[in-house]
Amino acid sequence: MADRYRILVLNQISDVGLKRLPAERYECSKDEARPDAVLVRSADMHAMTIPETVKAVGRAGAGTNNIPVKVMSARGIPVFNAPGANANAVKELVLSGMLMAARNLVPAIDFVKSLKGDDRSLHKQVEDGKKQFAGIELPHHTLGVIGLGKIGSLVADVAIRLGMNVLGFDPEITVEAAWSLPSQVRKAHSIDEVLRSCDFVTLHVPLVEATRHLVNQRNLQSVRPGTVLLNFSREGIVDDAAVVEALAAQRLRYYVTDFPSNALDAHPGVIALPHLGASTHEAEENCAVMVVDQLRDFLENGSIVNSVNFPAVSMQREAPFRLSVAHANVPNMVGQISATMGENRLNIHNMINKSRDELAYTLLDVDSAPSQSVIASLRSIEGVLDARFLPVER
Q: Do the beta carbons of residue 237 and residue 212 sit within 8 Å?
């Protein structure tokens, strides 16, 4: 048997996920010098020297801001994530945040902790002081959901079940997400429309350049007085300084966030949590299982599912010998790959090619084993980023 696949594990990854890598074929280590793949949660890989042996990176979670995705793309390395695996955990935390704000639970708890005296005195202080914490109930209020992926859809669904009205906005909603969205969700045409129309607004979008400070000083001018803003998405999507200003002007009643900062911490209208979105045993296991399965399928079969930089590509094996080619999305690339097969007398049994923006990926099943010189020939084609031979058994 050939060498096993070597996996560098940068963070504590759930054993439930790691056990899906057969010990006879995989070796996982925290200090592997020449790994075939990297498994990561929150470790910052931007300053890390990523070995030339790495063929894939798997993030046991949704966000990939801690991974140098552009650098990986240039090397032909897919970056996998686990979208939706922590969706229920985040949904429950959003609901918790809405309830904490609606019922003024945080200042109420702080009030009770400050009380002094015997039980009779405590009872009197409670009765005298509780009026200042009177809140609202969720039914009949309107929740705005910005970002209608898996998490946003689940949040919308639970809000509807609680009797709330839901207004949603997502200019890039996928067909799959649209099908899973509750029919009662009304469609908004802009973020501004959501902010000026809702009592609660929750954010569920990735942090990219287009979403940085998506909620800012300008659009916070239009919120209903007393609006509750919730951010369990990513730090940077909300302009903290603009939030503090809106809280001071009482346009926002609360800002509930999973991302504390010095600008926010001193304000009584901020409910800041220590990045608890995916911090449940179930979410950690779900994320680990999803990303490990994807990583294994890529290493063994060349399949790409849930990559943030490469197209989704999957093809049932119809021959014992498979080649994968990661390459630039340029004209005549498939022709050059096919010509290389012909020049080396390799019959193509089946082939699939997919592209995504500037990158593309080709899988080929051939009837006989390609030599190392064939792999070298593929890699020498201008625009090819990587080429691998994937036999049925390693």
A: yes
